[in-house]
Structure formats: structure tokens, C-alpha cells
Amino acid sequence: MIQDSHIERRRVPRFAFQVRAALRQQSDHRFAIRVIDISTHGCRIELLCGQKLAPTGWLYLENLAAQPMRVVWSRDTFAGLEFDTPLHEA
Asked: What's the gap between Cα 57 and its chain centre?
């Protein structure tokens, strides 16, 4: 019997969603990022300017209020963010 070593840990599926956005961490200014995919609970981002990530901050997406978030993983120029409060499904 072959077992699948890949176990999906997300609570909800993510959807491709490439858009430029911004992050703000603590008292820093906003800096540009690109959102790669998103769900109601979090997203995967690409850093565009070599910025170091603090553990918490705010994600700014066009036409939405700033979303408080925390960094759950980071590798090279990519990171996974979890929203403090899930987004509305719409």
C-alpha cells in the first residue's frame, strides 16, 4: 500500500488571485507585495523588494479594509499569511 506523503493542512481551499497589494508591519511604512493565492483565512504572497517580515502586520488589498494578519511561514521571497479574522466569502 502506497501512502500519500502530502497532507493538505488548509481549513479552506485557496484560489489563484494575482494582484499587487501592500503590507505594513508595526510602525513601518507600507511596502509593495504580490498576492499569489488567497482564501478566507489567509494568502500566499511574494515580496517584491527584499523586505524582512515581522511576525504580524496588516495586509492592504484594493477596495478592502486593512486585514490584520500574522506570518505563518516564510521561504525565500514567498510567505504564507493567516488573517486574524477570516474574510467574507464574497
From this structure: 11
At 32-76, the pLDDT tens digits run 999 999 999 999 999 988 788 899 999 998 878 899 999 999 999
In contact, 1 and 30? CB cutoff 8 Å: no
DSSP, collapsed to helix, strand or coil, labels residue 20 as strand
- Integer angstrom CA distances of residue 13 from 8, 25, 77: 10, 26, 22
The cell for 75 is 521561504
- Measured CA to CA, the distance from residue 1 to residue 80 in angstroms comes to 33
Question: Does pTM top 0.90 for this prediction?
Answer: no
